[in-house]
Amino acid sequence: MIRSYRSSRGVALLIVLWGCTLLAIMLGGFAMLARTEGLQARYQFAQTQAHYAAEAGIVRAVQALQDPDANARWIADGRSYTFSFDNATVHVSVSDEDGKVDLNAASDQVLVALFVAAGVEADRAKRLSAAVQDWRNPTEGSLPNGAKKPQYEAAGLDYGPRNGPFATVEEARMVLGMDPKTFATIAPAITIWSGRERPNTAHASPLALAAVPGLGPDQASAILAQRNDTTGSALAGGNGVTHTIRAEAILTDQTRSILTATIRLRGIRSGTQPYAVLRWREGDGE
User: Is residue 128 part of a domain?
Assistant: First the structure.
């Protein structure tokens, strides 16, 4: 009888110990889950803060591009502007689209020079230029060294050229002969929104300047040097209406957000939106 009683007490003790162990494991799991959810919530909150700080950078650039004071107006040549917003540091750069090579309007000479400046061998640069022109050309006949539907089929591709204007900058990836490295190099210097045969030297990047016919390296260097020394209203007043704005917001804990928007200014008039968004990207990818 005594043995049976002691045995029952031993079993009960084991059950209690196992129960305590399971309870401790469950409590530990709940604590870990709560900690993880707390970290996720803080991360999401910080990301949201950074995102809206970057959006503030976009809006700040739009306002600064249209500042009534010409001396305070931002210059759209890719230079960086920095300001504080809440607990974030925001870096903003603005590039005027008229300083880029327009895929839908650039001449053969400009396109060839762009590809050569991007490191493409001369003969291949000529073929790429012809392929770009054939992509946007509505006729069925191809240029010498160009590419229409038969050339795309011969390359094993199941598509052909648009035979119309480029709809997006990224569409250039699809042009026959365009490789990822070349596209990544030229992407910051190309546009579909300027309508110009050649880039405007007042806002062009070094790569776009290299595509301007008749402009040698020394002249390009002189333009860049003069631009860096210019802070007055003359250059600011020369901004166009279509710009790409890149805003990067960095919080004190190093959380960051990057937004890139191509916008078209509409002017500051009562009852109208001051700008239209043509392209919007989040993150640092092209």
Answer: yes
